[in-house]
Amino acid sequence: MAGSEFSETGDVSSFPRLFSPLQIGRRTLRNRIALSATTTCYGARNRITDRWIDFLAERAKGGAAMLITEILAIDPAALASPSVITAYEPDNEAGFKRAAEAVEQHGACLIGQLWHPGRQQLWSPVFSPKGISDQPDALSWTVPHVMRTDELRQVADAYVAAAGRLKTCGFAGVELHAAHGYLLTQIMSPWSNQRSDQYGGSLENRVRFVREVAEHIRQACGEHFVVGLKMPGEEGVDGGIDPDEAMRITAALARHFDYFAYSQGNFSLSLETHAPDQTFRRCHFLDIHKRIRPAAQGAPVMALGRIATPAEAERAIQDGACDLIGLTRALIADADWPNKARDGRVDDIRPSTYDNFAWGEIHAGKPLAEVHNPQLGLKGESAWQPPRAQSSRRVVVVGAGPAGVQAARIAAERGHAVTLFGASREIGGKLRREAGLPGCEEFLHLIAWMERQLRRTDARLELGLRATVADVLALAPDKVILAAGSHQRRPANFLGEGVSAREWVEGGRTTRAQCVVLFDQDHAAGTYAVADALAKRSRLVLLTPRTQIARQVNYCSAIGIHRRLYAAGVEIVLAAEPVSLGARVLTWRNVFTGETRNIADVDLLVWSTPRIADDALAEPLRAAGLDVELVGDCMAPRNLICAIHEGEAAAMEI
Ligand SMILES: Cc1cc2nc3c(=O)[nH]c(=O)nc-3n(C[C@H](O)[C@H](O)[C@H](O)COP(=O)(O)O)c2cc1C
Ligand code: SF4
Q1: DSSP assignment of 450-467
Q2: Model pLDDT for residues 495-524, shown as the tens digit of each residue
């Protein structure tokens, strides 16, 4: 079965290093697992909410030893959105105290991540941009106000005041966010710092500000208060902080920090490496961490970036890459990752697929949501079990894709008598087919996890059978959940032959075509995986009616999509829709002007288009008096999170 890495056995004895204590400053951590800083957008009107606290507390309960909060604004210039929590106002003190108590109660410690975006116009901060030099922000090209020395001193004071507030509220420490191209990176990086005063130029000058902030926090908060630094291991821009410069910076700052965390990229095109998606190999950056670690001179080093399994985490420590493992996406997907690893339930760990959906949500200003963890951030998330139903009902689920499998499992776990019909012999639906595309292999782990969980229930599986109305009626169900999915439609008004992207994938992805046109009226990641696969075989022209591509993909992963398409020589034609294909000539039309053009020597048109729900069973079953609910694409074709969450919601209502 796919997903072998997560189905490996092992418990605390298999991961002795991961579950050994670690001294960070004066604190002893119970194990080596930390939640690396994770923005949730659970704040409201810049205030802490219950969900903001629960997200952290549930991960402490799930066994992580150290939890680093999301970015906390250290002064009004850092107020990037109404969900960003302010650490400079007394109004959040009660919430900070509750968060620290909740985390400590579960045996973990809480670290506040102190943040100032500088020139970075990430979510259009109201009072920013303020920068170290007048270089434009690489993302928005905004030119910041260049801070005078007295303004920099005010910002330094704000860091210290915020740290003092968190200490008073019971936090174990703070982490200065000096990664990802925010203010502190801008100051340390020769790429962005063009100053000629005592804060610019030489390395000594560029680290001065961070050093002064750390020293002042230490003076104000004492030796027992942890002070960590998250900084680039590789900024990924010419003239920026590369691993050699990161080593020099680390060496210069080593005695001022209790730990160092290294991440990659900044908010330029190197952003892609900041949350490396499933197209990157696992543990991509450990070599860099290993190289830099000696410069920390004994201060613990946190490695992070696509570390997925306990075995990978154990290996990273064993190989000397780090002392501490930072996990974000793995712990978003499963708050109980540490406890499950400790207790020998590795195959129970709900794997992240590293699709970056959650990242996209928070960067769109929406609350953190997780593709297949509907309980995310809710009280009771850790060790959650669906409540037993008051009475057992006969439930039939049609469709063994993610929506149907989730519905069937949750309904069965609640005590219902469930039959699941799946047309294919394997569960997973279109996701399984997508998993065969380049860079999509992580989906196999998700499907394997879903299957393992499902097979532990009493649900009866009827796989390889496309259920008919008669099949369903024969079971006399109290409830029918239709999760039969969807299929892609022909492009409107198109004359000629072609296949849908789904059909092409299902047909084994073989083509002898020398030139393929892919009509992209979808913009989701799966379409570009098809493009990657097509471009390996043929000359590829991608047509889209929009003026951009990848509009449904978070902009971190969208960078990789563009990079791969351009590297493969794919021709991208914007504002275009296909009109006809005949005699190897594809005619397309500009959607704004109606002007038509031809592409010669085209062998095949593949379309990825808005889908049609496969809901044909619904009306006959309703007419037969059954209680029928549609979920996922079968209800209205959308994305994976809708499918899984809706499947669960339907099962919870029975
Ligand atoms: C949803 C999400 C939110 C994040 N928020 C922050 C943040 O507030 N501060 C920060 O330094 N890094 C943030 N990161 C980056 C993570 O801390 C981490 O460096 C990165 O995700 C790589 O680790 P992973 O592979 O375990 O996810 C975030 C990442 C994700 C996916
Ligand atoms: S949304 Fe995707 S990338 Fe984010 S934690 Fe969930 S599975 Fe992982």
Answers
A1: HHHHHHTS-PEEEET---
A2: 999 999 999 998 877 777 899 999 999 999
pLDDT above 90 for 124 = no
**What are 159-169's pLDDT values in tens digits?**
999 999 999 99
**Cα–Cα distance between 371 and 137 in angstroms, integer?**
31
Residue 46 tokens, joined: 């810049």
* Ligand 2 center–CA 330 separation, angstroms: 8
- Residue 441's pLDDT is 94
Alpha helices in 112-202 (DSSP H): 149-168, 183-188
Ligand 2 lined by 631 (C-beta under 6 Å): no
> pLDDT tens, 524-535?
999 999 999 999
Ligand 2 contact via 331 beta carbon (within 6 Å)? no
Which atom of ligand 2 sits closest to the CA of residue 351? 7
Angstrom distance (rounded) from CA 67 to CA 328: 10
Q: Would the CB of 442 count as within 6 Å of ligand 2?
A: no
Is the whole model's pTM more than 0.85, yes or no?
Answer: yes
For residues 78-113, b (16+ Cβ closer than 10 Å) or e, as one string? bbbbebbbbbbeeebeebbbbbbebbbebebbbbbb
d(CA 517, CA 617): 34
* pLDDT given at position 512: 77
Res. 46: pLDDT tops 90: yes
Q: How confident is the model at residue 6 (pLDDT cuts 50, 70, 90)?
A: low
The CB of 370 under 6 Å from ligand 2? The reply is yes
CA distance 324 to 313: 9
Domains of the chain by range and CATH?
4-363 (3.20.20.70), 394-487+613-652 (3.40.50.720), 490-609 (3.50.50.60)
| Residue 2: predicted pLDDT | 40
Inter-residue long-range contacts of 378-381, CB under 8 Å, 24+ positions, other chains counted: 378/51, 378/54, 378/58, 379/50, 379/54, 379/58, 380/58, 381/54, 381/58, 381/335
Average pLDDT, the chain: 95
Mapping DSSP to helix (H, G, I), strand (E, B) and coil, where does residue 67 land? strand
Q: What is the pLDDT of residues 287-345, one digit of tens each?
A: 999 999 999 999 999 999 999 999 999 999 999 999 999 999 999 999 999 999 999 99
> Does ligand 1 have an atom closer than 6 angstroms to the CB of 177?
yes
Query: Please, are residues 449 and 428 in contact by the beta-carbon 8 Å criterion?
Result: no
Q: For residue 401, report the distance from its CA to the centre of ligand 2, in Å.
A: 18
How far is it, in rounded angstroms, from Cα 180 to Cα 318?
Answer: 27
CA of 232 to the centre of ligand 2 (A): 23
Three-state secondary-structure class, residue 618:
helix
What is the number of the ligand 2 atom nearest to the C-alpha of 373? 6
Angle at alpha carbon of residue 312, lines to 306 and 318, rounded to 5°: 125
- Strand-pair partners of 510: none
**CA 69 to the chain's CA centroid:** 16
Ligand 2 in reach of 352 Cβ (< 6 A): yes
The answer, yes or no, to whether residue 128 has pLDDT greater than 90, is no
User: 220: CA distance to ligand 1 center in Å?
Assistant: 28
